[in-house]
Model the fold of this input.
Amino acid sequence: MRPKALAIGCFALATAVVLSGCGSDTASGGKTKLTIGLFGNFGYAELLKEYESLHPDIEISDRTASYSDHHKNLAAHLATSSGTADIEAVDTGYINQFKATPDKFVDLNTKGGDQLKDRWLSWKWEGSLSKDGKQIGYGTDIGGLAICYRRDMLEAAGLPADRDAVAALWPTWQEFMDTGKKFQEKAPEGVKWFDGGPTVLNAIVGQASVGYYDKTDKIVVGENKEIKDAWDMVVKGVQDGLSAKLLYSTPVWNTGFKQGQFATVTCPAWQMAKIKDQSGPEAAGKWDVTSVPGGGGNWGGSYLTVPKSGKNVDKAVELAAWLTAPEQQAKVFKNAGLLPSTPKLYEDPSIVDYKNEYFNNAPIGKLFTDAAKALNPQYQGPKAGDIQTAIGNAMQRVEQGKQNGEESWQQFVGDVQK
Amino acid sequence: MVLMDKTTRRHRWDTKFSPYAYVTPYFLIFGVFGLFPLLYTIWVSLQHRNLLDEGGAYLVWFDNYATLFADPYFWNSMGNTLSLWMLTTVPQILFALGIAALLNRKVRTRTLFRMGVILPNITSVAAVTIIFAQLFGRDFGLVNWVLDLFGAGQIDWQAGTATSHIAIAVMVVWRWTGYHALIFLASMQAISPSLYEAATLDGASGWQQFWRITVPLLRPQIIFTTIIATTGNMRLLAEPLLFNPGAAAATGGSDRQFQTAALYLYEQGFTKYDFGYSSAIAVVLAIATIIVAGFGYLVTKRIQTD
Done:
């Protein structure tokens, strides 16, 4: 009897192993298991739990990678049609590459997306719409723009620290740079005015009416005077010694927050969660937020896409629609600071009156909804993300003293035309 | 009679064919994971092919190669590859010989030391690179701190071509020297002590014995390690990639100053999704590796056994 029982036991065990091994679609107890692939901080942890309790038949697991790893892995997984999560987040910098091959994704318009269209800012909706009218992603957040600054450092250099007074120092970027020169004269040891040229430049580019591309997908950055003027101004700032010469989203930049190497940093809304994570609790109340020079602009923001290779496409679409609904975007704004892409919330008092404790109780609700309303959407071409990397490298060449502004600009323009 | 006839026939069949059966698994695995990818890469290199849109691929024959040979960034990356090959392979083998010679003596706890030299090799390359990148940091790096004590000032290791190559070479040499040292050590122990005794009687110094006996007798191992190190160092990817993490990682520095050919391949294939071009780089890099390994073989072969 016993050997037989053992054999049955082994068989059952083996079956269980096999089932769990390939059972990415059905979890124990007949639940549907959904995976969601994210990068950075989407503020979804609690929302996913809430969704599970609302839908007892669904189990969600999320995986988070770094910004560039996430998008590279997604491309590789899409290419082989395997390994994609049921929902994959895509950033603005990459959405144009992915929407160029819309057949890899579920066309959300065929799943009721066209009914939801009015939720979003129209430019956000169009951002993930392919040329042949397929909708590959639901918008999550938008960047908006603001400036985060260290109150203690500005005070130490004899500048005002109050956020309205600070905003009055820099109606334009030129005045931002001029204020920087004043700051640098009396700055605390080892502190620079801004984190790095590429960060500032990205913000100014985000405010321009035309960025790297015109609407026919032609790269026009070489002839774009607005961008070239911004370039020259930032190069001048670097030469005046205002830059801590740290490239954004790198480990040394993270260290820069911790060590307090710079007094200001350009703050799209999603940056605030990063600043808080990197600066740590000891910097609470030292950071504050105020409006950005030069008016509204966008940098970043994301979409949730549903790859076609997923096993539970319909359930995934449902979840993506729920996560990007105004009610959920409001919660994300409050816990992670991501600026909603749904204009309905810009009038909502619970958003508009929201203040952030870490940033010295800054009225970020008012600040960012104003920024979103002032935002002048800019057309993003297919390789906007690559060009952003190239211009960042170009600015770094100037910061590292490898080239002067003009040489570096010429090389950048040549690189992106290829 | 019949029975015996049958066994001999089976025996003959056995001796004739079973060796092939024994080596078959290797060739099957090599075929699937070695030869097929190689041939397929050559095939892809003749196409215009986007990673995300394989349906839209079409044959362009040698267009990718023509573009490649006229591409200054490719030659830049090949130059960086050769420079890093020199900076890693030569010190690696010289240090390994020295360490092996030291470990071959009668020192206390030498098993501990012998095990210790292999430790860098079994640590994760990603972890090692991230830590080394911090050591070579511009503002808060340990290396700059030490240099500062000697009044050498702050070096922006990533910014310069030479400085970035040195930093990357240090990571590679640190990781692989112990591995080669163990190979040398094993062969040193096989050298007959009588040779050294005779040399001592003839009045040869330790230094002379090392260069005249040890090194010549290690010639086969030196050739082997040179080739292994060459094939490894010609396709350096993880170190230059992780030396500069972030969105611009694949360009290997602001002016591609430490972008190796393998990293250029990665940039073209996985950030620009141009698989045809990236495969062409892979093919040219493979040929270059064979040439450089051949060169290394010719140089090390000249070690004389007197």
